[in-house]
Design brief:
The chain is an alpha+beta fold. The chain has one domain (about 15-105): D-amino Acid Aminotransferase, Chain A, domain 1 (2-Layer Sandwich). The protein has 4 helices and 4 strands. The chain has helices at about 35-40, 45-55, 80-90, 100-105; strands at about 20-30, 30-35, 60-70, 70-75. It has a 4-stranded antiparallel sheet. A hairpin with a 2-residue loop joins strand 1 and strand 2. It is elongated and about 40 Å long.
């Protein structure tokens, strides 16, 4: 069983051909990323324990950048353009937090 089964069906919701995101999976505790909590997800290998961890330690994907959209390479484009496109993407089941939020803090 995959460590993040809650994210396996994401491709059903993506309405673009190919999308490459740069980011990381985190578990938020009191609104802050917790390394200890994400390890409790990452280190599970038993299916039952993974299912329990999904409920106890829900994961969030923090997207920092959008590298490709609809098979179009965006690497040569300005970062602001990447972030603008990233904010327009709609992905149910996942909370996206773009780098723009961190740049503003």
């Amino acid at each position: 069983m995959h460590v993040y089964p809650d994210f396996q069906k994401l491709n059903r919701f993506i309405k673009v051909c190919q999308t490459i995101l740069d980011g990381e999976m985190v578990v938020l505790v009191n609104g802050k990323s917790s390394f200890a909590a994400i390890l409790k997800r990452d280190l599970k290998i038993d299916g039952t324990r993974i299912k329990l961890a999904v409920r106890k330690f829900p994961a969030t994907f923090i997207a920092f950048d959008l590298l490709s959209l609809d098979n179009k390479d965006l690497i040569g484009e300005p970062l602001e353009y990447h972030l603008e496109l990233l904010e327009k993407l709609q992905f149910p089941m996942i909370i996206f937090r773009s780098l723009k939020i961190f740049l503003m803090e």
